[in-house]
Amino acid sequence: MDLLLSSFDILARWDVLIALVVGSVGGVIIGAIPGVGAAVAIAILLPATFSLDPIVGLTALLGIYGSSMYGGAIPAVLVNTPGTAVNALTTYDGYPMTQRGEGRRALSLAYSASFFGGVFAVVCLIFLSPMLAAIAPHFGSREIFLASLLGIILVVLAHRGQILIAGALACFGIWLNTIGLEPIQYSKRYTFGQSWLSGGVDLIVVVLGLFAISQAIVLLVDKNRAPRTGTLSGDLFQGFKELFRYKKVASVSASFGVLMGMIPGVGEFTAQFMSYTAARRGSKTPELFGNGAPEGLIASEASNNAVPAAAMIPLLALGIPGEALTAMMLSVFYVHNVVPGPQLFQNQMDFVVALYIALLVLNVMVVAFLLCSTNLLLKIIQIPTRFLGVIILTLSFVGVYSLRNSTIDCAIAAGFGVFGFMLKRLNLPIVPIILGMVLGGIMEAKLRTSMMRVKSPLDMIDRPIAFILFLLILVVLGSHVWRMWRDRNTTENQ
Amino acid sequence: MSAEPKRAKPGEFLFVGLFFAISVLLLTQIGDQAKFSAKGKLFAQPAFWPGVGVIGMVLFTGLHLLTHMRQQAKNGTGAEVVIWLRAFEFVGWFMVYVVLVPRLGYLPSTVLFTSLLALRMGYRSPAMLGWAAASGVAIVVIFKTLLGVKIPGGALYEYLPDGLRNFMILNF
Question: Which among A56, A172, A188 is the top mutation candidate for probing chain B, defined by the most B β-carbons within 10 Å of its own β-carbon?
């Protein structure tokens, strides 16, 4: 009870409440505009949050992260264009429902499933907290090194069909992070005699280049598009009643979201596809999937909205981000000297619980906002894409330049913008670069610390959690090799 | 997460090839660019992690080139390169904006930037140009005036009268 009161005390401030409102409403709007997405918005806002209290900055960013997928469902359902990448599966059943005149029902179901997924994940997080608080202190340097290694392997393997290039880009991220002064012996690494490289390449500069500037260039180079939408009439509450009919689908999908969200590198896409497949298997009308099945829509939205809360678990408990957005949030923690990891759970549990409560409140606020303002959001969706490109490029400047007023940072970000643009044109993944940078730094520091205490390589895994993590790495790699062998055999037989 | 394309997109082979060449170049420089002393364990060498990075880059891109050789697109690489080059126009716009801000000031540079870029992108109607300028003002007000992000006042502001100069430097 004391813990709860202390957590409410952290949240009961006007600036936190404003951050929650701005984050949640802003996230919905950003999510609803195809071509922007939470990653771009968080990248731009990140430096602006550095001057705020950690709880204020984090609630604003969490707001954007948690609510963007709600907004992304609107264009996915009404104009067959996902607002964010993770809403792609929503188009499969949402748009066919709109085509048969059930747009309002589809949108209402999407909101209610999203709400269920979001709240379910926060409740899971609250119940898991005591367990996490008990386990987290057993994570020493070697366990965090192995967990980071597992994370990077999972991120690479998650890009099926692009594993080699994802591996190369993750290694590129690891290399990028080593540029500048090495932290122990202070020798220079890959500075090529350039003093401006001595400080290294800032993660925020890379993130802004790869996500924001590249997206601006994509929109500016592409043809101008402005999706056309009508207006919706009637109440949007019916989905909440209807969701009760599909409670099993919603619960299973949200559970997949929680489970996949907790595993670094896996995230929304895997959760969605697994829950969609499970929903189709369990459905009495599987033939409707892809043609406007309410269960398909619920599976997609409940699972993807459960991920943000679950993704906070490895970040808060171990300091290991599982995907790009939590990697960005990690920098907010570091800037304020709040180091996520086992110590956070031991010493600042009220801060952790405050974040959970913020996530819970956020979901309520988002649904309330959506129920009142969907027709207004339909107008925002119609913003021409090239105009959006102009705005994103202008906003990218604030993000980069406000870091340290450096023209060189802006030039580096622009360079990464072109690099990210090329990757996006080629459908190659960007996330491994960011996770390579973040997890590479963690791995370097933790391997050094842990190897000082071990005499032989086997000592690395002589503790239970380290051994389990090592086994998991072997299982993940082994199952991948087995899958490759199976796919090759199938291809040869055909 | 995306499925393997049956045929690589135009330009992919060129992109990965360039990435491979740069990775090899970086690997050849590791002796000069990172310290490796005879004493000390391998993992504690300053060159260890950059080595992990560049060796991984060479290995993975090399394997990608070998395994995807037959999947490379037959046509369209030239057109794709032209599209890549078009990106530099917007990098140019961005860098001019970066250079202008400390000289003209954040507000004038931003309004000028959004309006001119909107014009360049084909928006001719007064309404759209008005929206572009208004968006510029809104961005400055939100970030500099309200959030107080660190962006220096423009050199041009020095020519303003005393009271207005301080106001502009602090807020716009």
Answer: A172
